[in-house]
């Protein structure tokens, strides 16, 4: 018997993993005659949300970016109206498969920070649950095989069912506690990513030689981070690196600027080192100074070079050369998008 009669699921999703979990929860809720509402947080105005009926269970699910929830999810939680509802936090992490073993992703500070924010608003945390869905970060690795994707979807579907049975009956599920040590250890990286890393990755995308200017990426971007500059898509610092644009592009024209980052890294090493010796000749032993100078140099160069690249992309010949320097240009690298259930259920 279910303890809850009403559930609201708030989700943010780029390539569809978090949305897939939300749909599964809704499916299991409907089987128990629970009224379930799904809300995409990228499509609502948080200021219009009112306090919830205290009997309603709130579920928040989002991918992990840089060992934390992305900014859009954190901002949503920060602006939630005060309430006394029970909240279950979930995330989708970068799952991989080696043989029959699934390598778990890392949650980092996502649950710790979100739980703290929610508790200050009066909410009660009833669960912290990670799901190791297929990794979608094709900027650094090829897309997973269809066999692996189907395996991970099937595995997480039944995991979701077990979790829902316990939560719907009033229980709590804190499977994230198993990873608490490594999540705490990795937390400094999540801070660096939130302050600087996400801005760097925002400049890793560009529309390559196959772009036909359909503007689908601009229209579908959940955070409105893509603009049209020099008659081509241009990624601003608002980008969350959710990979939705790369996943949905009909021409597979959106690529990762591997060569741009390589050139920026080489120039940062030489120019940054020169600046350190010129400006701080007696303080080179301080790692903090090195870190600051090199990062400022890197971001300044990346911003300038990205704008230069945007201008060069107007030339078809140069655009073709740039595309060939990206691993994501080649067919073997592939793309990732969460698959509908019928694709793995028919093989079960």
UniProtKB/TrEMBL annotation:
InterPro entries in the record, alphabetically? 4Fe4S_Fe-S-bd, 4Fe4S_Fe_S_CS, EFR1-like, Flavodoxin/NO_synth, Flavoprotein-like_sf
Ranges that cross the membrane: 98-118, 259-280, 286-306
Record-level Gene Ontology MF annotations: FMN binding; iron-sulfur cluster binding; metal ion binding
Q: Which Pfam families match?
A: Fer4_9
Is Membrane among the key words of this record? yes
Q: Would you tell me the protein name for this molecule?
A: 4Fe-4S binding protein
Q: Which residues form the 4Fe-4S ferredoxin-type domain?
A: 202-231, 238-259
What UniProt keywords apply to this chain's record, in alphabetical order? Iron, Iron-sulfur, Membrane, Metal-binding, Transmembrane, Transmembrane helix
Alphabetized NCBIfam families for the sequence: ferrodoxin_EFR1
């Amino acid at each position: 018997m279910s303890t809850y009669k009403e559930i609201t699921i708030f989700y943010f999703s780029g390539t569809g993993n978090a949305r897939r979990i939300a749909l599964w929860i809704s499916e299991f809720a409907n089987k128990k005659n629970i009224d379930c509402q799904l809300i995409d947080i990228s499509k609502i105005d948080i200021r219009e949300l009112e306090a919830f009926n205290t009997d309603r269970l709130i579920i928040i699910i989002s991918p992990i970016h840089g060992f934390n929830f992305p900014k859009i999810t954190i901002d949503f939680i920060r602006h939630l109206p005060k309430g006394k509802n029970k909240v279950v936090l979930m995330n989708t992490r970068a799952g991989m498969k080696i043989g029959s073993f699934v390598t778990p992703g890392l949650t980092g500070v996502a649950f710790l920070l979100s739980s703290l924010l929610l508790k200050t608003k009066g909410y009660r945390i009833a669960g912290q649950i990670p799901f190791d869905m297929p990794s979608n970060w094709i900027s650094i690795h090829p897309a997973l095989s269809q066999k692996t994707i189907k395996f991970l979807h099937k595995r997480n579907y039944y995991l979701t069912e077990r979790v829902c049975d316990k939560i719907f009956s009033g229980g709590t599920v804190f499977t994230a506690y198993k990873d608490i040590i490594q999540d705490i250890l990795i937390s400094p990286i999540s801070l660096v990513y939130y302050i600087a890393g996400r801005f760097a990755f925002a400049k890793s995308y560009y529309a390559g030689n196959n772009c036909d200017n359909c503007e689908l990426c601009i229209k579908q971007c959940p955070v409105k981070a893509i603009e049209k500059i020099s008659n081509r898509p241009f990624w601003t610092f608002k980008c969350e690196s959710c990979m939705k644009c790369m996943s949905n592009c009909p021409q597979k024209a959106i690529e990762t600027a591997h060569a741009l980052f390589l050139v920026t890294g080489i120039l940062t090493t030489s120019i940054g080192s020169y600046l350190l010796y010129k400006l701080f000749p007696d303080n080179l032993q301080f790692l903090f100074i090195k870190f600051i100078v090199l990062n400022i140099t890197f971001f300044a160069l990346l911003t300038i070079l990205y704008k230069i690249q945007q201008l060069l992309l107007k030339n078809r010949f140069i655009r073709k050369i740039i595309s060939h320097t990206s691993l994501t240009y080649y067919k073997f690298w592939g793309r990732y998008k969460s698959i509908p259930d019928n694709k793995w259920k028919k093989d079960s």
